[in-house]
Give the backbone structure.
Amino acid sequence: MKRIITLQDISCVGRCSITVALPVISAMGVECGILPTAVLSTHTMFKTFTCKDLSDQISPIADAWEKEQITFDGIYTGYLASARQCDQVCEFFDRFATRENLVLVDPAMADNGSLYGAFDESFPAAMAKVCAKADIILPNITEAALLTGMPYKTEYDEAYIQELLEKLLKLGCKTAVLTGVSYSPDQLGVVYLDRDGQSFSYFTRRCATSYHGTGDLYSSTVLGGLMRGLSLGDALALAADFVVSCIDATAQSTSARWYGVEFESQIPVLCEMLKKRLMK
Ligand code: PXL
């Protein structure tokens, strides 16, 4: 069984980061180790939250793993709490990334044109250094604009997306995947470009409501799919279909949108979708 390590926060309530990555990646048949970078009462979209920074734990934990010769088939990072943590994650890559394993970075820091509340304007430059060391990065359009210095647009054409992707590759990563791309009101999808000039896109119908945490759900599913041997295109498509199915399942719920999507009921659907793609 493949083993991955994910470095991101634990938001105790609110379905994001580790509370999404762990169940989803495990359900996909991949061992999911965690390195919690901070513990928050909830994610930062709640009005009141606590945050205990665990930066001082990253290096001793890494030391212990190195001594035990623990290795990972994948390293997956999400929300990081500070610029210092971005530097620590870069050091972690230097120690644990190899030619054989996969480094996937979701630069979870912004959406809908603005940075998350906990960050200041210097943060994207720190996250860009993390992206530089990745095999695959998965920003949304807001994050891509902040990482590249390009303007953020809500109305755009294929040339804008292509330019964003090319500038993302210039950060140093091998493959850039843009999420939340839409060329028509009823569709939403992903587009990728890699260093060899290969590209791919996949679109689903656009759901009426958006929920917090779907980015984390998406990235976790992509990583799980890749670890199970799917091609990047198949993993991206599987993750998109799964997120749509989770949003559909949540649409009847009266729970507020910032509690995330009810992915729990869709885990059997995910396993079925994965099985079908593996048999293709
Ligand atoms: O879903 C991304 C995320 C993860 N962790 C924390 C967050 C957010 C987004 O707001 O606040 C703590």
User: Anything to note?
Assistant: The first helix runs from residue 18 to 27.
